[in-house]
């Protein structure tokens, strides 16, 4: 008893030892008390013993059969012994009562009873059933009479009834041994089951309970009928058709007894089945968390798979937007779904399935027909066999709770097991294609060492996943946890990323070799193989060979980087191998520098030979060139023979030809000098060629000017006046005069050129004679000349001139003496030009607004209406054009366009004011729309809501019109729109004022609301039906609180800190039907109390 086995719970051992010692003490005390009573050592405790045996004779007369007689001598010894024993028991009991009740207060008795330990009185249990006598016992006659009376009315005194009941009991015993309503057979559950298999097996077993209805009850019926028929049809009439007589017949009572036996049998098998079913699950529930991989040795009951699921992660709400026009909806916390490990079937689902099977088994024996109904189907129709218990009896509920508790006990263990893999969930989130695309599109160059580190890290992570995630099933209590292919598929992601990175680097390597390095080598080879046509190429190639080693070394450095990448990728040859072409490129590029050195040596030798050859060729060409210079000099010297102005076209052609040859000779001389530098020779002096060009310059200036004037004067005087380019005319005349003065001075230096000088004088004179007409041409050919300007000129010169005259030429205008009014014409032309500038500016502004539209294409969120976008461009253009048109209003030349300018200025100002009011209204509407879209706010602010709805209707109609016609100028200049916007803004200002007053009233009731911005407070108040909407803002209202626990009917029971600490509230805070400021005050109160 005092032995404590190693591993036994000390608390249980102490309880067991205490109970044993206590019971031993009680037993010793009772023995001592019994000895005191039997010793007769206590004075005054001996009760009176009655020696009159008449009472015994009376008892025996009632007890013994009448055939025995009164006190027959055969029973004398037995009666004497019984009398002695009864008297002794009576005496001892009376002494015990006197000792413990009447004399316990005396000093002597108190000393004797001091060491007696009295056991606690047991509390009398309330019986399930009971009885109460309905006839006083004194009215009963003798036992014999009662036995005879009972035998006359009792069914159990008849052999056929006893036989029927016996048969029924045997069938009930057979049912208990053959069928159990719940499957608890270890042999039937030889392997772990999925939820579907578990349901299927048990559903099939429960379906077999139809045996009760189809076989068992009919068997009971047959047995009862067979046994009762042995008494004959006269006592038990199975063909009875009168229901009243049947109710009074013995058969009815027999069948009721049978039904009671059947009900009790059903209850018995269910009591046993429920106990076994609950014990079946409890036996598979360990006392503590343990993970075991010995699934085959100790099979689990259930199988559940670990799968990849999604978990909600609530991001912190972004800071309140300070930009105007942003609604509170924009600041809702974002919910992100991240992959995680989860069970395909949770313990709760298995518990629900087990409970459902439990419930199905209970109702499986509902609606059974009683034996009465089977025997008399036409007379007894509504009678059903009672199953002996109710669906919600205490023992059934306890069994159900035990099963559910056993399964749900695994929930925390399975969750804890899954949490051990939380650090691997980042691998589940890997999107192989996205990660590879990000790696591929990265602009940062990656070295070979970095590639090795990245790939090695992925492979190490893969090994960790394969090591951590089981590849075989694990067991926790009654659950077998299968991982399926999840370990392999998760690890394959990392392998795919590693392989993809190597493939990307392999592709980059091949692309760099072929697209960058090989073209550079090919360019070098092409350069080395190029033709050498002249000394410039020789010099260029010599320079190229000088820098070639540096270029090759640079490319070799790039090749070396590629070689490092080759080796890095090759390190992981077990998972990725470069293709043959890429590998071949490595060795091809590796051998290119040697080939370049060989070809460069050959090219250097060839350049030395070509240099000598080209040097000899140039010497010969320069001798020939000297003769060409002599010929050109002679032609220039003899060009003075052309001294007739009438041959201007012929002379112009000869001049252009000689000028081209002179320019070619100059270029050739420069080429010879540059090549002499390349040959390292002294440069030849060709300054004589420059003197020839200078001597020829006067001829060029003269004959070119003469040719141009000869051609232009006919076009300008006799051609259509509207075709004259005034600016070109002015430039040609003024430039020609200046050039002629310069040419004349040059020609006068040589007396032999007097005839040529006279030609120059003549050309100059003709140009100067035409020069006074130039201002007339410039003035009249102004682009702004209109009919009113021609009328002004006609009025000034005294005759009608204009585009309508025939012919409309300069010569015709000169004949009318227009050249005498050049100053007046210049003044009119200047005015026309400035008026034309104003007109073009005004038209340009109007044309620019034709392409300015608002962006009113897409609906704003889910409001069913639109908002104004693209207003920045319109506002900037408005500012610019308003300044421009105001400047035009102050112009001295606005008179002709004054009405148009003023009208346009007024239109722009109206557009500007309308747009300002529109944007102001839009900001207010965007702020208030989501607020008054909430039913809670509408109920709390009915008047403000009504005002907003009126504005909202007008806003929607205006935006629908803008959607149909979004041209800025047209819609903003619409009649009445500006006034409508101004009125709406006044109304919304009133609404906002009422809203702010409402928020202030809420803050006055709960001061911590002052920590929230208006938008945040409105977010809470607009969702009063959902108290959880306060969660994102809790850390602002209560600094250390991150969230609350809502349970049941949205009762708040816990508060959570940002660090994860959880504190239970003393009293749950109710939120249903309570204003938010009230229950938030309750949260604050409970926070202090907790």
TrEMBL record:
Coiled-coil intervals, chain numbering: 648-675
Ion transport keyword on record: no
Top-level division of the source organism's lineage: Eukaryota
Chief location: cytoplasm
Any one Gene Ontology molecular-function term assigned to this protein's record: ATP binding
GO cellular component: axoneme; dynein complex; microtubule
Subcellular location(s) of the protein: Cytoplasm, Cytoskeleton, Cilium axoneme
Alphabetic keyword roster: ATP-binding, Cell projection, Cilium, Coiled coil, Cytoplasm, Cytoskeleton, Dynein, Microtubule, Motor protein, Nucleotide-binding
InterPro entries named in the record: DHC (IPR026983), Dynein_2_N (IPR042222), Dynein_heavy_linker (IPR013602), Dynein_linker_3 (IPR042228)
Any one Pfam family match given in the protein's UniProt record, by short name: DHC_N2
Domain spans labelled Dynein heavy chain linker: 691-1089
Gene Ontology biological process terms, A to Z: microtubule-based movement
Protein name from the UniProt record: Dynein heavy chain linker domain-containing protein
Source organism (scientific name): Perkinsus olseni
Lineage, broadest ranks: Eukaryota, Sar, Alveolata, Perkinsozoa, Perkinsea
């Amino acid at each position: 008893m005092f032995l404590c086995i190693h591993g036994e719970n000390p608390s249980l051992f102490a309880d067991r030892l205490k109970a044993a010692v206590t019971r031993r003490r009680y037993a010793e005390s009772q023995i001592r008390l019994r000895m005191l009573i039997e010793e007769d050592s206590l004075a005054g405790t001996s009760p009176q013993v009655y020696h009159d045996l008449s009472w015994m004779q009376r008892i025996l007369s009632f007890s013994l059969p009448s055939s025995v007689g009164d006190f027959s001598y055969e029973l004398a010894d037995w009666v004497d012994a019984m009398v002695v024993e009864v008297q002794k028991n009576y005496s001892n009991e009376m002494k015990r009562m006197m000792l413990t009740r009447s004399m316990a207060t005396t000093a002597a008795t108190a000393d004797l009873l001091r060491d007696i330990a009295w056991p606690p009185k047991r509390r009398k249990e309330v019986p399930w059933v009971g009885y109460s006598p309905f006839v006083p016992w004194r009215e009963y006659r003798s036992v014999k009479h009662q036995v005879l009376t009972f035998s006359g009315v009792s069914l159990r005194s008849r052999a056929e009834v006893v036989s029927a009941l016996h048969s029924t009991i045997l069938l009930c015993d057979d049912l208990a041994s053959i069928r159990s309503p719940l499957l608890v057979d270890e042999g039937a559950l030889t392997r772990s089951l999925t939820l579907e298999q578990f349901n299927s097996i048990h559903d099939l077993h429960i379906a077999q309970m139809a045996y009760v209805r189809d076989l068992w009850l009919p068997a009971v019926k047959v047995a009862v009928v067979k046994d009762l028929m042995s008494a004959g049809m006269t006592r038990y009439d199975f063909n009875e058709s009168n229901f009243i007589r049947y109710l009074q017949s013995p058969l009815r009572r027999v069948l009721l007894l049978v039904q009671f036996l059947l009900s009790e049998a059903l209850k018995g098998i269910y009591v046993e089945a429920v106990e076994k079913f609950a014990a079946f699950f409890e036996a598979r529930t360990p006392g503590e968390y343990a993970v075991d991989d010995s699934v085959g040795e100790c099979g689990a009951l259930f199988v559940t798979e670990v799968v990849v699921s999604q978990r909600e992660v609530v991001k912190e709400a972004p800071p309140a937007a300070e930009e105007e026009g942003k609604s509170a909806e924009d600041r809702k916390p974002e919910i992100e779904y991240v992959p995680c490990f989860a069970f395909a079937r949770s313990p709760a689902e298995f518990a629900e399935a087990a409970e459902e099977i439990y419930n199905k088994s209970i109702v499986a024996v509902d609606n059974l027909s009683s034996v009465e109904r089977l025997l008399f189907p036409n007379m007894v129709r509504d009678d059903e066999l009672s199953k002996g218990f109710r669906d919600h009896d205490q023992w059934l509920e306890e069994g159900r709770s035990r099963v559910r508790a056993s399964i749900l006990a695994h929930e925390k263990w399975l969750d804890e097991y899954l949490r051990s893999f939380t650090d691997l969930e980042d691998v589940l989130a890997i999107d192989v294609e996205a990660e590879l695309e990000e790696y591929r599109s990265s602009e940062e160059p990656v070295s070979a060492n970095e590639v090795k580190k990245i790939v090695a890290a992925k492979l190490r992570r893969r090994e960790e996943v394969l090591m951590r995630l089981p590849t075989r099933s694990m067991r926790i209590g009654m659950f077998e946890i299968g991982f399926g292919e999840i370990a392999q598929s998760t690890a394959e992601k990392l392998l795919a990323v590693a392989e993809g990175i190597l493939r990307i680097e392999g592709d980059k390597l091949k692309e760099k070799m072929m697209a960058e390095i090989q073209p550079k080598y090919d360019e070098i080879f092409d350069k080395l193989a190029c033709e050498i046509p002249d000394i410039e190429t020789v010099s260029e190639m010599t320079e190229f060979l000088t820098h070639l080693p540096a270029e090759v070394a640079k490319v070799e450095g790039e090749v070396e980087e590629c070689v490092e990448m080759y080796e890095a990728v090759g390190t992981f040859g077990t998972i990725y191998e470069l293709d043959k072409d890429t590998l071949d490129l490595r060795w091809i590029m590796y051998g290119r520098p040697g080939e370049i050195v060989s070809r460069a040596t050959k090219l250097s030798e060839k350049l030395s030979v070509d240099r000598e050859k080209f040097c000899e060729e140039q010497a010969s060409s320069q001798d020939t060139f000297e003769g060409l210079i002599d010929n050109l000099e002679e032609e220039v010297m003899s060009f003075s023979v052309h001294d007739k102005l009438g041959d201007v076209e012929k002379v112009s052609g000869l001049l252009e030809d000689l000028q081209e040859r002179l320019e070619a000779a100059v270029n050739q001389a420069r080429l010879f000098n540059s090549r002499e530098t390349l040959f390292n020779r002294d440069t030849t002096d060709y300054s004589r060629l420059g003197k020839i060009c200078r001597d020829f310059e006067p001829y060029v200036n003269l004959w070119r000017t003469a040719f141009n004037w000869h051609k232009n004067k006919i076009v300008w005087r006799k051609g259509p006046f509207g075709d004259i380019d005034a600016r070109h005319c002015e430039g040609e005349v003024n430039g020609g005069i200046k050039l002629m003065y310069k040419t004349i001075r040059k020609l006068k230096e040589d007396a032999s050129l007097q005839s040529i000088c006279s030609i120059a004088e003549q050309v100059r004179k003709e140009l100067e004679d035409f020069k006074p007409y130039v201002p007339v041409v410039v003035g009249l050919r102004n682009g702004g000349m209109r009919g009113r300007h021609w009328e002004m000129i006609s009025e000034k010169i005294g005759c009608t001139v204009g585009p309508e005259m025939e012919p409309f030429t300069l010569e015709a205008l000169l004949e009318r003496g227009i050249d005498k009014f050049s100053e007046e014409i210049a003044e009119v032309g200047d005015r026309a030009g400035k008026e034309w500038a104003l007109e073009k500016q005004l038209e340009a502004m109007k044309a620019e607004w034709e392409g300015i539209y608002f962006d009113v294409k897409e609906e704003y969120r889910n409001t069913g209406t639109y908002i104004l976008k693209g207003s920045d461009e319109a506002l900037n253009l408005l500012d610019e054009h308003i300044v421009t048109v105001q400047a035009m209003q102050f112009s001295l030349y606005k008179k002709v366009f004054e009405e148009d300018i003023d009208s346009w200025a007024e239109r722009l100002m109206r557009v500007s004011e309308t747009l300002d009011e529109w944007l102001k209204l839009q900001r207010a509407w965007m702020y208030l729309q989501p607020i008054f879209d909430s039913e809670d706010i509408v109920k709390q602010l009915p008047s403000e809501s009504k005002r907003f709805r009126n504005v909202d209707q007008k806003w929607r109609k205006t935006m629908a019109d803008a959607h149909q016609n979004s041209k800025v100028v047209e819609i903003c200049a619409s009649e009445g729109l500006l006034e409508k916007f101004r009125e709406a803004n006044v109304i919304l200002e009133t609404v906002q004022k009422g809203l702010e007053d409402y928020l202030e009233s809420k803050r006055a009731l709960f001061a911590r609301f002052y920590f929230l911005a208006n938008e945040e407070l409105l977010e809470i108040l607009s969702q009063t039906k959902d108290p959880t909407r306060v969660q994102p803002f809790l850390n602002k209202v209560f600094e250390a609180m991150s969230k609350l626990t809502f349970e049941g009917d949205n009762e708040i029971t816990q508060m959570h800190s940002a660090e994860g600490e959880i504190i239970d509230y003393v009293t749950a805070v109710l939120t249903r039907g309570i204003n938010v400021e009230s229950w938030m005050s309750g949260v604050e109160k409970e926070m202090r109390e907790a």
